[in-house]
Hints:
101 residues, five-stranded mixed β-sheet, globular, 25% helix, 3 helices, alpha+beta, 25% strand
Amino acid sequence: MTATADARSTSDSPVRVNGTVRYWAAAKAAAGRAEEPYLAVTLAEALAAVRAEHAGRPELLRVLGMCSYLVDGDPVGGREHASVPLTEGGTVEVLPPFAGG
């Protein structure tokens, strides 16, 4: 999922930005890694790339459906993932449900 973003942007073609997806707890175990890069415009696009990259890991695909997400430290909550923009050098935290909390 690594590439470089074009610095130009138009309303028809937003610029994809580079950042990091960080997995926690069960998501980390299911992904087989703590983090990986993304190149995307929105949270939805980054998660679609994660799903494509890990198509052979059904447990991760299952866990992603139960996770909550932080983008640059801000909770996504119930917002549509396609409406959540990503920033250059940003971070998407993938947080599965935690027992007792």
